[in-house]
């Protein structure tokens, strides 16, 4: 029970990495609120996570939504010990294919979303709280065709450093996790055929030194470490969990 009596918010906790992390945090004794936009998933997620979970609707790009979520959490939990700013979006695009809509979508979900999530919950973070930002292995190295997503995630990585300084006096720790290619529903949301998705996943797996994509639980365990009191001396860092993809 590494998170006994702790309260956590996980944005984008209705799918993939966020959902796996919610399951693990609850198993380790935490009360967890997860958020998402698509309400059609909420009943299934509630049933899966059980009575120690809240499932709340909100778009991380909306300060109004995030303030409403923060108000609900204040009422339900009293304060927060852990925030996993996990909601995010990735889409491959060569530089010539970037248009205004794609630019806004990638930058706003990944960067604005993290800024407003933090701003909304800031008054309710308890002393000693741990805030974990979800970045990506794509920002670790130069890669073809994913520059906008990589730039957005590099901005998020920078926020973990700056905010670590800004909140030293409140003993709030900020760290990032950079997942590698993780087998979640994300890629299936790109609007391509099942066959295309299967082929891309096979290509990803082949390019990863350990020979396979990661599981959402691989990231959940890293988040558990950063959320727990075992990591109180870890501040402003980025933990890369990518099967060696960006490091070997
Ligand atoms: N999977 C990978 O290979 C990989 C690699 C590196 C980094 N990451 C990062 O890991 C994080 C989670 O990704 P995942 O793979 O678990 O994706 P996923 O399965 O698609 O889950 C994404 C979650 O974020 C929520 N979300 C998306 N946009 C949102 C918004 N504007 N406001 C609120 N919630 C929003 C989704 O719910 P709704 O759609 O209902 O809003 C869902 O709960 C992302 O930040 C992603 O960039 C993933």
TrEMBL record:
Keyword Oxidoreductase in record: yes
Annotated ranges, domain Ketoreductase: 6-180
Keyword NADP: yes
SUPFAM superfamilies in the record: NAD(P)-binding Rossmann-fold domains
Keyword terms of this UniProt record: NADP, Oxidoreductase
Database matches in SMART domains: PKS_KR
Family from the record: Belongs to the short-chain dehydrogenases/reductases (SDR) family.
Protein name, per record: NAD(P)-dependent dehydrogenase (Short-subunit alcohol dehydrogenase family)
């Amino acid at each position: 029970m590494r998170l006994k009596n702790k309260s956590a918010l996980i944005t984008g906790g209705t799918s993939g990495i966020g959902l796996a992390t919610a399951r693990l945090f609850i198993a380790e004794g935490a009360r967890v609120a997860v958020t998402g936009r698509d309400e059609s998933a909420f009943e299934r997620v509630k049933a899966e996570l059980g009575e120690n979970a809240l499932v709340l609707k909100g778009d991380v790009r909306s300060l109004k939504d995030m303030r409403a979520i923060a108000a609900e959490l204040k009422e339900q939990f009293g304060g927060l010990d852990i925030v996993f700013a996990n909601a995010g979006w990735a889409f491959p695009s060569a530089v010539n294919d970037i248009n205004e809509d794609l630019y806004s979508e990638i930058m706003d979900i990944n960067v604005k979303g993290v800024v407003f999530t933090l701003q909304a919950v800031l008054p309710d973070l308890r002393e000693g709280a741990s805030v974990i930002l979800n970045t990506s292995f794509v920002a670790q190295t130069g890669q073809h065709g994913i520059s906008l997503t990589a730039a957005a995630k590099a901005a998020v990585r920078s926020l973990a450093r700056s905010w670590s300084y800004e909140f030293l006096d409140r003993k709030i720790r900020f760290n990032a996790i950079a997942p590698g290619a993780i087998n979640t529903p994300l890629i299936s949301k790109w609007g391509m055929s099942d066959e295309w998705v299967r082929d891309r996943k096979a290509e990803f797996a082949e390019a990863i030194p350990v020979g396979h994509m990661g599981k959402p639980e691989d990231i959940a365990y890293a988040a558990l470490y950063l959320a727990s009191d075992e990591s109180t001396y870890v501040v402003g860092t980025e933990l890369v969990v990518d099967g060696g993809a960006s490091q070997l």
